[in-house]
Amino acid sequence: MTATYTPRNPIWCAGCGHFGVQGALHQALARLEVAPADTLILAGIGCSGTIQNNLGTYGYHALHGRVLPTATGAALADPSLTVIAAGGDGDGYAIGAGHLVHTFRRNPALTYVLMNNATYGLTKGQDSPTAAMVSTGGREQALDGILLGLSVRASTFLARGFARQPEQLVRLLVAALEHARSGRGFAFVEVLSPCVTYQDTYPLWDAEVTDLDDDPHHDPTDRAGAFASCLRVMEQGRVPIGLIYRGGPAAHIPDPGPAHVGLSDLTAEYREIMDGYEV
């Protein structure tokens, strides 16, 4: 008899923002009635990279920075799956930044939840690419994943939530999952998810977030307007959250071709290659 996997208890510190992200994702999947057997969560390296152990879905732990190409492959191999990639700001904005750009460009039908705590929590608090969001001591500017996504014209869904605001976060994740599941393309949700041990940004982000969902002048279907809205908020020293942009063409899902290739199909080609090495 096959045993059913029992989710593990999270390894995160008490108060970690990732608890809020996990709870919101669980609620979003339940609200959409997505069965665990129809869901694949792939995670990167870091504290956030254990989320796939906790929800009882299919899960996969990808190489550092490589969660997006792995998730893209899964979505292409089985378009019926609800594919969710998850990771942190180090995994997604540092070693994985190149893959993020090209995933915006390719627009595959999957959801990416990036938990931003502005630090490398798993390796004891070094600065991540977003550290300048919460610190003025360095010379570097923070990488902003939302502005990056808006600059790639093929992107179709961009949102930012805050772990302290679970109701909005659930709404954003529901919208993101619906976007990807309907074939519209890549849904990117950055979540401000404080690390209480090395970079406790709850008080700072409580004071600094500005909800564009409450701004009557913000139009999430206008890419240029969304970019301008974000810059306006950021120039005030604040952080824009909410549904930033949704639009663009539907995702293009190429035919991956035959799923199985028999050995006999490759034998002649293999022999020809090996003959080339004869001395």
Q: Mind explaining what this structure looks like?
A:
The protein is α/β, with parallel strands linked by helices and 279 residues long. The chain has one domain (17-275): Rossmann fold, CATH 3.40.50. It is 35% helix and 18% strand. The chain contains nine helices and ten strands. It has helices at residues 17-31, 67-77, 89-95, 97-106, 145-151, 166-181, 202-208, 223-235, 263-275; strands at 39-43, 58-61, 82-88, 111-116, 119-120, 126-127, 157-162, 187-192, 209-211, 239-246. An eight-stranded mixed β-sheet has the order 2-1-3-4-8-7-10-9, with helices on both faces. It has a two-stranded antiparallel sheet with strand order 5-6. A hairpin with a 5-residue loop joins β5 (119-120) and β6. α1 packs across α6. The protein is globular. The mean pLDDT is 88.
**Rough outline:** globular
Q: Give the helices and strands as they follow along the chain.
A: HEEHEHHEEEHEHEHEHEH
Largest sheet: 8 strands, mixed
- Report the total helices: 9
> CATH top level?
Alpha Beta
CATH architecture call: 3-Layer(aba) Sandwich
What's the N-to-C terminus distance? Answer: 54 Å
Radius of gyration, whole Å: 20 Å
Count of strand segments: 10
The CATH superfamily is known as: Thiamin diphosphate (ThDP)-binding fold, Pyr/PP domains
Question: In which range does the helix fraction lie?
Answer: 25-40%
Strand content: 15-25%
Mean pLDDT: 88
Low-confidence stretches at least 5 residues in length (pLDDT < 50)? Answer: none
Which structural class best describes the helix and strand composition? alpha/beta
CATH topology: Rossmann fold
Please list the strands of the largest sheet in the order they lie side by side. 2-1-3-4-8-7-10-9
